[in-house]
Amino acid sequence: MNKTALIVVDAQRDFCAGGSLAVPDGDAVIPPINALIKKFQADGKLIFLTRDWHPADHSSFADQGGLWPPHCVAGATGAAFHPDLLACPEATVVSKATEREGDAYSGFDGTLLRAQLLAAEVTDVLICGLASDYCVKATAIDAVKAGLATTVLTDAIRGVDVQPGDSQLALDEMKAAGVKLALSDSFI
Fold first, then answer.
1. Where are the alpha helices (DSSP H) in 16-151?
2. Neighbouring residues of 49: CB distance < 8 A, sequence distance ≥ 6
3. From 40, 61, 127, 182, which residue has the greatest number of CB atoms within 10 Å?
């Protein structure tokens, strides 16, 4: 019997409107994510919320030689989950990129996520959140590598698109790695 978990990737203030690394139209992912959370709560299924939880001098920040403006600094307002994200006290929060060095785009990188999913006998994961061309992509590809049937919900993701077309390229890379793409309403 298949056991499905929901992984919400980095639905944090800094990645939404007004944030220091706002993803274009990032706020649009919140309504479909909330619908999924409600469904998973009602069905008693597992929910994981990943978050960037950076030290103030994280290597990915431009002032440290990285690509990005400072964002999602541990404990700062910008690192909080989006204010409209449905409160989900039973969800497991997975903090990533907590060390100064290393980007850790994937929710599996340096965390206990894989072990937690395997311990719960999860076979399938649905992935949504921000940003499709970085953390969503890395998390989805690592989920496949962990042996999980992985579906990314395309209406519940948005990309940074540093270069035009990055989000489409990310979808193509995920499909090539064995990730399925679907709309969230088929799971609600």
1. 30-43, 113-119, 137-145
2. 8, 11, 81, 88, 91, 92, 93, 94
3. 127
In this prediction, residues 37-63 reach a mean pLDDT of 95
DSSP state of 92: E
pLDDT at 2 over 90: no
What whole-number distance in Å separates Cα of residue 37 and Cα of residue 47?
7
What are the φ/ψ torsions at residue 181 (nearest 5 degrees)? -115, 140
Please list the active-site residues.
Answer: 10, 96, 135
Which amino acid is residue 11, in one-letter code?
A
Half-sphere exposure of 18 (CA within 13 A, CB side): 8
pTM score, two decimals? 0.97
Degrees, nearest 5: CA angle 14-20-22: 65
